[in-house]
Amino acid sequence: MTKETKRPANPVLDEQDSKIREKLSQIEHKVMVMSGKGGVGKSTVSINLAIGLSLQNFYIGLLDVDLHGPNVPKMLGLEGGELQKRPDGTVGPVYYSPNLKFMSVEPLLPNKDSAVMWRGPMKMSAIRQFIYDIEWGKLDYLVIDAPPGTGDEQMTVAQMIPDAYAVLVTTPQEVALLDVKKSISFCKHVGMPVIGIVENMSGMICPHCGKAIDVFKRGGGEKLSEETGIPFLGKIPVDPRIVTTGDAGRPIMAMYPNSHTAEAFEKVVQNVINVTQQMVLKKKKEQEKKEAEQI
Hints:
Blueprint: H1 11-24, E1 27-35, H2 42-54, E2 60-64, H3 72-75, E3 84-85, E4 91-92, E5 94-97, E6 100-103, H4 120-132, E7 139-145, H5 152-160, E8 165-170, H6 174-190, E9 194-199, E10 204-205, E11 212-213, H7 220-228, E12 232-235, H8 240-248, H9 252-255, H10 260-294
Parallel strand pairs: 1-7, 1-8, 2-6, 2-7, 8-9, 9-12
Antiparallel strand pairs: 3-4, 5-6, 10-11
């Protein structure tokens, strides 16, 4: 279902929609991190982007809508984390730090190894509940970690959060670039602005000789940015510590903040801040122009 498609009237869903809009109005920026294919490090980018933003004193929510492979709890070291039950009966997300909280399907499963065998309508309903039932409060950014591709989860986010932006993650090789072009096409179709491209696994610094090794080529994401006019947010090198820190539940931005890789993520974070602030200013000017024309 795209933004242009209207569903039949339903009083229950209409009431939910109203509450969802109210909750989303308390979140300034909604950013969905997407990839055209799996294995490009999308969750790694999502998590380190969220942590990097939180370290800049922004209030961040991280929503994992990868229902079949919810890796966020493991990578944050919070497997088995419990939702916050409040005195008024509402439920809050799991806290990673005072500035960062997250929600995933994992806390709702009987155990972390349970398979999620849901078809489209169930997945759409679950994502709606992540906003409708969870008290996120006021946030500067909601980072949404989506599964690979352009299926039910991405379409639900596009429909439910019409002012969401997209960040596209790719690796330099051509097959990944072909798939990310499909994500660009999806975003155009649903009217979701793409605020930038991140090139992950972009070269590796040899720990022995110090020279750069292009394991998966280099520069493909930057070239795609030039071809499409989509901002290039930065490139993240191959770093074995990304794997070990993710498995240990200590993302590299938190565990090795002075590393070359953390510095690369910091550039991505700063570029996301710059682009989203520019979009806010652009919308403000457009609104002022519109109001002036109506006078």
